[in-house]
Amino acid sequence: MKIRILRTIRFLSVLSLVLALCGCGDKGPVKRSWGSMKGLRDIVGNMNDVSYSSGRTQAPRPNALGMPVAMPDFEGEFVWAEYAAPWCKACTWQAPETKKVEKEMADAVVFLTIMTGKSTEYNDHATVETAKAWSQRFGLDAKRVLAAELWFKTVPEHRFYSPQGHTLFVHVGALTADQIRQVISYYKADWEEWSKTGKRADWMTSK
User: 163-177: per-residue pLDDT in tens?
Assistant: First the structure.
């Protein structure tokens, strides 16, 4: 009987450790996920990392007007960044959903769309024309639709950044307007509490 109890205690201890390492302490409205993308485990939710997922040091990307845009341009504001491509059916569904939320939260959050590629062909990256066409198709702000050399990226993908550049949330896959609202409200409130009082939410780390 004692041996069985000890085995159970050991199992629960190991399980707790595994859950902690997997970031399962995050009880957010939508599970954070990024598939096989490397490096994000040490960035997402890390309150010592203000790199915009390494975007702080990236070269500026042109928007649909041909003007260079860099992530640090939005320092001091929450940013919802969405990656998309014209060949992606889920992205054409996603764009109107995100636009619904943008209409409601434009005063509190900057919404960016980052076009990754023109097609699935090798090295067929997005261009200013790709960004312009997407902006016109969905009635998006041309200044906030960017062209990137990321033809290989899985889309749609969403990232939510703090005003300081913390990566608060990453998710690969389509989200409804309601899910986006919930995600923004959840992480925004926790980050604001942390910035004022230093109180850490369960999903925050300091790797």
Answer: 999 999 999 999 999
